């Protein structure tokens, strides 16, 4: 069982399978840190449409409600981090901070053309993280 788990969450996905795996990896005293990244594109689009970044963070936090509820249902303690920046970079930075034992991510299928050029978030994190990464389909 892991004591400190980093859970990368995309609010546009249900993340149910990843949450199932987190519950299997958790035990007494486990703390899960939920990380969501606001891309520069999303931040700029929000600001241009008149929505302040604080409101966008609040909206993202609301989007994480089902994730928090699932963790609570399993009796798992959690923290929430919402950061501005590239999801891959932010996840790798947090994973390599020394605070966690494992990263859990949902595998989101990128469009074939984009995946060929950019690679997926889960792939980049798996390559660059210094701790184990569990990618859940």
TrEMBL record:
Instruction: Name the source's superkingdom.
Output: Bacteria
The record's listing under InterPro entries reads: Rossmann-like_a/b/a_fold, Universal_stress_UspA, UspA
State the organism named in the record: Staphylococcus edaphicus
Matching Pfam families = Usp
Instruction: Write down the PANTHER family for this protein, in alphabetical order.
Output: STRESS RESPONSE PROTEIN NHAX, UNIVERSAL STRESS PROTEIN UP12
Query: Known CDD domains for this protein?
Result: USP-like (cd00293)
**What SUPFAM superfamilies does the record point to?**
Adenine nucleotide alpha hydrolases-like
Q: Report what the protein is called.
A: Universal stress protein
Q: Which family does it belong to?
A: Belongs to the universal stress protein A family.
- Domain (UspA) spans 1-137
């Amino acid at each position: 069982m892991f004591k400190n788990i980093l859970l990368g969450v995309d609010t546009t996905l249900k993340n149910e399978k990843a949450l199932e795996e987190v519950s299997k990896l958790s035990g007494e005293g486990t703390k899960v840190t939920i990380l969501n990244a606001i891309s520069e594109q999303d931040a700029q689009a929000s600001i241009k449409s008149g929505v302040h970044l604080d409101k966008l963070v609040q909206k993202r936090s609301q989007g994480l409600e089902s994730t928090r509820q699932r963790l609570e249902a399993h009796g798992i303690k959690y923290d929430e981090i919402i950061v501005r920046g590239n999801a891959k970079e932010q996840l790798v930075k947090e994973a390599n901070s020394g605070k966690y034992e494992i990263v859990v991510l949902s595998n989101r299928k990128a469009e074939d053309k984009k995946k060929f050029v950019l690679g997926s978030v889960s792939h980049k994190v798996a390559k660059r993280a210094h701790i184990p990464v569990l990618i859940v389909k």
